[in-house]
Every structure is written in structure tokens, then in C-alpha cells.
Amino acid sequence: MEIIGYLSAIIIGLVMGLIGGGGSILSVPIFVYIFGFDAVTATALSLFVVGVTSLVGTTGFIRQGLVDFRTAFTFGIPSILGVIFSRRLVLPNLPHYIIHRWGITLTKDMFLLLLFSILMLIAAFKMIRKNDRPRLRKNHENNYTILISQGLLVGIITGLIGAGGGFLIVPALVMLLGLNMKRAIATSLFIISMNSILGFVSTMQMVGHDWNFLLIFSALSIVGIFVGIGISKKMDGRKLKPLFGYIVLAMGIFIIIKELFLNQYT
């Protein structure tokens, strides 16, 4: 099973290179169900892997001049505040039992995984759905206000469940600011790298880490992102989004079934 997990690391990077996000959608379930980590540790490991992978992948885009730094910091700074809020204040104060009455038991790990699965379902529908060409708003000042608020929201999500939020960031950059897909993907990866690395650092002392495991897994993921970036130069990543969306949909449904119905029999 661990071999499958390590091979999945390459796929995580591949997806990130192709569509500018999606890595954490795969990494958290892999850490939980293949490697056996608890949900809180899995989200921390996901932040490290996704952060390092996206940072390395971004260097090539920076050299090509594709990263819009003004947009990245406009979105990224409030997003970082959201990450710190989630990792330092929300997660440590969640009780072990979220619900433990009326015959219902919902633990902290179950809650985080179910929240993550809901995010997966939303991401899947966004990827599967055929989007019409977005209409750009003329009031760019208002667009930046929306971008800042969305950055804060993505940061809170990133910190809470270890998801980089690329599936939210890329559409926001395209629809609100009119960035083309390649610039949106490049800028998204830069934002994800900032959020994820700072999210990991903010709570790295709260969970245990096997650095050898993390570095090997991250190295494989980095190989994958370079492959993905190479493929994206010849193929539009948007064409692969529906296929990836169906995979994410299936994984999201599996997590819900596993946590709500199968855990009680194990």
C-alpha cells in the first residue's frame, strides 16, 4: 500500500502542474487512508508537501514572467492571515468530540475529514461543470475588494483542512481580474506556496513529523509537478479538469461513506 502512496505523490505534483491546484485534494486522503495518519497530522503534512511542491513549480513560472505579484500579494496576505487564524486558534481549540450525544458520535478527525469531503464535492462539481466564458466586472477596485475577502476565506480553508484552494483561486483570478489561464495557474501556485508553507510552520510543533518521509514524498511530488508543467505547455489543463473532477467526486463520496457508515464497524 505504501508503494501506491509514494506513486500517488507523483500524481499530486502532476495535477498541480496541469491545473494550478488540486494537490491537497489528493494528499490528505492518501496520508489518512494509505499511511494511517490522523486527520490533523495529515493536514499538516499536506501543507508541507503542497507548499514545497508549488514553490518549486513556481520558480519556472517566475522566470517566464507569468506570476502576477501584485495580485498574488493582494490575495495572499489576507489568505495568510486566514491560515494563521485557523492553525493557531481554531484547530487547537476544537474538542475531541464535536458531537457525542443522542447516539451520535462525531470526533474531531471525523469532522475534519467530512469537511474536507464536502470541499472535494464542491471542487469536483466545479471541475466537471462546463463554464461559459466569464464576464469581467468593469469596477476593478470592487474586484480587488472581492479578491481580498476571497483570499481570507481560502486562507481559513487552507489552515483548517490543509487544502491549498487552487480550485477557488484560479477561477477568482480569471473571473475577477481577467488573467489568462496560464498566468492564473502560475499566480495560484505562488499563492498556494505562501499559504501552505506558512500554515505548516505555524503548527509544525503541534504534530509529529518524519522528515525522511516528508522529504521523499515531496521530492516525488516535485518530479510530478515538472512533468505536469511540461505537459501543460502542449495540452490545455482545462481539458483534463472534468476527468480529474470525476476522480475527486468518487474520493469525496468514499470519505463520506467511510467516516459515516464504515467506521462504526471497524
Q: What is the average per-residue confidence, as pLDDT, rounded to a whole number? A: 78
Content-based structural category: mainly alpha
The CA-CA distance between the termini, in Å, is 19 Å
User: What is the helix fraction of residues, given as a range?
Assistant: over 70%
Number of helices: 10
Q: How many DSSP-defined strands?
A: 2
How big is the Rg? 18 Å
The biggest beta sheet is recorded as: 2 strands, antiparallel
- Total domain count: 1
Catalogue the unreliable spans: 134-138
String of helices and strands: HHHHEEHHHHHH
Rough outline: globular
Strand proportion: under 5%
List the strand order in the largest sheet.
1-2
Secondary-structure blueprint:
Blueprint: H1 2-19, H2 23-34, H3 39-63, H4 69-93, E1 97-101, E2 104-107, H5 108-128, H6 140-161, H7 166-177, H8 181-203, H9 211-232, H10 241-262
Antiparallel strand pairs: 1-2
